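Listing S7. Sequence submitted for prediction.
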Amino acid sequence: MNNKKDDKDKRSVFHVSISESEKLRVKEIADQSNMSISEFIRQAINDKINRIDNPEIDNAISRDDSMILDYLRKHDKKLTEMEKLLRQRMSNGKVIKNSLEEIKARVNHKKLEILKRRIVSTLEEHGSLRPKEIKEFTDIEVHDIYEVISDDSTFGFDNNMRVMLK
């Protein structure tokens, strides 16, 4: 573009009458855009002239904007539905997890009951035994033996730290 002095010589002055509130609004927007009021008004006039000279561009932009908005509305609705479904599935997942934990606890309890019966049967047959000896007779792992005897008042230890029935 030409330098400012040449540009200024070619300019004309227009007087426009606007209300005080309109002037304040124009000043506010111009300040936000880091422009003077004159620059802002000059740009607004040029934008309006360009839209009048090229209506097909303005219409295309408006059409595209409405298409974009329609597209966003449709996809926003789909996203909302998907979010709802995801939350429902997460909730179902928590229910399933809780059910699985409950089943696991029941199975573990049943397992301990079966192991207890085998240990009791072995102790009734052989008297008091060390945990390693119980393992040899029952094929129950030592840590499982300790888990059973520690949680049950049916068992005790004699003076030689052998497991016995109370």
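Caption to Listing S7: primary sequence and predicted structure tokens for the chain studied. The mean pLDDT is 83. The radius of gyration is 43 Å.
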